[in-house]
Amino acid sequence: MRLHIIASAIAFGIGAAALAVSAQGDDRGRDATFRQLELFGDILSRIESDYVSDPDQVELIEAAINGMLGSLDPHSTYLNAQAFQDMQVSTRGEYGGLGIEVTLRDDFVTVVSPIAETPADRAGIEPEDRIIAVDGESMIGAGIDVAVERMRGPAGEPVTITIARDGVEPFDVTIVRAIIEVRSVIYRMEANNTPYLRITTFNEHTTEAAVRALNDLREANGGPLPGLVLDLRSNPGGLLDQSVSISDLFLSGGEVVSTRGRDARNTYRFNARPGDVLNGAPIVVLINAGSASASEIVAGALRDRERGVLMGTNSFGKGSMQTVIPLRGGRDGALRLTTARYYTPSGTSIQATGVEPDIAVAFRRPREGEIARFSEANLRNALTNEAGAERREREDMEYPPEDWAEDEDYQLHRAIEQLSSMMERREARVQSGGANR
Q1: Cα angle vertex 276, ends 274, 280, to 5°?
Q2: What is the model's pTM?
Q3: Catalytic residues
Q4: N or C: which end of the chain has fewer CB within 10 A?
């Protein structure tokens, strides 16, 4: 069926509905909405009949839907059937591509973070990098879906992306595509026998992988862990339930996070169960501007519950929750709609502000001409903070010494120092308590 016939039928149906609504005395606002829908049908019909070339009807409708959702906030979007299937595969922890979490900012496809141990990570892609072309095709204004489609492809095939990065001229990076088996948890014993646990994303397997990692670390330590560096840097988030269950590992009861929708009655609180796998041993949590969404829930919970010391730089500031609503069982894709904001245990929204570290430490010294602008607050149509709070840059930021080697992780170095100090103080308290008894 040609588009103008569809559009005319839509317009007729809408007009009849408008008359019925008017007869029932509905308010003017609803009548105005129906008139705008009639306008939409008229424009569709005119495009189909008069545009210079034959348009793709499916692409037109999808673009209109995404335009409507994009006017709400940066995270509400329509997923066609293929994109919905890709998203389901991604949350299960395996998908094809380069291993980059991206968002749209000022019409630029912008890297939130490369996923650890993926082709993009090994190629040196950084948070805040702007992907301006893929295989020579401009991605400026193209949108997330187009960019992701261009970057994905059969494993083993190369793709060249053009990167714009503050302080340097745009440059090309050729990366070989691979099946991305996301390793959501990385762990090891660091310097001074310091337990280290990095969570790269929150997919369906994150908590079970973290439990196995902690058990392995205990075995390597020969007993209970004296402390932990929990690394949430460049973790773009993921599943809410996984952020709650990860927080639950380190909290003994009490609130982890709450979510509130438009209706105040739709408020939900998520609590930890009794029991702390570390038995109160100190935790240093590393965060940065790539720590978003679910990782901010964990960081906010451990900070507010005084369970961990946060170190690094301000997190991304995504304090909203999206609900994925399948359409016709997924046959027509799905609607990803922002339905709630989330709040840390103290009742604080980190929307647009991010979670601030207790100890501000930069990964490297700033590059010449570099502008600190990577955050939720910089995204088009980003939700504002309900309390009116604004993101602030830390004036007490600690930078690596000028002679610090670029390939050495200064934030991790400082986290190990901080944790060692905390473990020593805890051990001294234990010894003091034992002497008093």
Answers
A1: 125
A2: 0.79
A3: 293, 304, 318
A4: C
